[in-house]
Amino acid sequence: MIVKNFFTINIHPPVAISIIAGLLTICSCSLFAKEIVLDSPKELLEEGIKAIKLGQNLRAKTLFTQLIEDFPDSKKRSQALLLVARSHYSIEEYEEAKFHFKKFIDLYPKHKNIDRAYFYKAMSDYQRMDLTSRDQVATKDARDGFQQLIDRFPKSQYLRQAKQKINKCDFNLSKNVFEVGKFYYRTGAYLSAISRLKSLLDDHSKQKFFDEAAFLIAESYFYEQNFKEAHLLYKKFIREYPRSQFMLQAKKRLTALR
Is 209 part of a structural domain of the chain? Predict the structure, then answer.
């Protein structure tokens, strides 16, 4: 007997499961096909921005990269390049972020958001600063980057932040030299301590620990038995740092040398 109504056909359970699985596979493929096939710069950019709003930074980065690579002549490319740089920055890939911000600066020097690229290029170095490392390349690069922003864009919305970050960079650079100088002093390498600490006072902006550096220079000359130079430096120290915590020690040294 021919059954006219499809839904009344008796189907064995294993066969039914296979049919349902097949239908689900087809449906799922059709659903995801729409998401995968993004064949215009506008679609890629819009989907990437949506991904950022949803916190999907990895997906956003992939979409923006696809736009940049597949549509090199698109007007959307500049925006995508800036956004892919920010995507790298958001997931703490700072070296990659710096690369893309620099690329944006090189390709679009007149872009309306060029100051943003300068700021975040410097921030990419700033995020990699390490005070404990003797290699302060990232700190120096960050400082240079913030200074470029200040010099080129005096009306930038990032100006105040850049100045604050420069102060932090200066502190880190000074502190690093200071700690190296103190290390030499503690280990009895007084000539090396003198060299480092003098370069700190001469080449870096003034910091709160400069009084200690000046005192340690005088102390280093004292232990090197260069009493004439030590005497002069203790007197200078007392004159320049009257409120220092090392004042009493300096006065005792000066009294002893007299």
Answer: no
Mean pLDDT in residue range 122-128: 97
In a domain, 62, yes or no: yes
| Whether 148 contacts 117, CB under 8 Å | no
Query: 83 lies in which domain range?
Result: 39-91
Where on the phi/psi map is residue 225: left (φ > 0), alpha (ψ -120 to 50), or beta? left
What pLDDT score was predicted for residue 18?
54
Q: Report the C-alpha gap between 174 and 163 in whole angstroms.
A: 17
**What are the CA-CA distances from residue 153 to residues 119, 156, 158 (Å)?**
10, 5, 9
Instruction: Decide which of 62 and 25 is more confident.
Output: 62
The Cα–Cα gap between 168 and 234 comes to 30
Q: Taking a C-beta distance cutoff of 8 angstroms, is the pair 94, 124 a contact?
A: yes
Cα separations in angstroms, 246 against 4, 231, 243, 251: 104, 15, 8, 9
The CA-to-CA distance between both ends of the chain, in Å, stands at 127
What are the backbone angles phi and psi of residue 233, rounded to the nearest 5°?
-75, -35
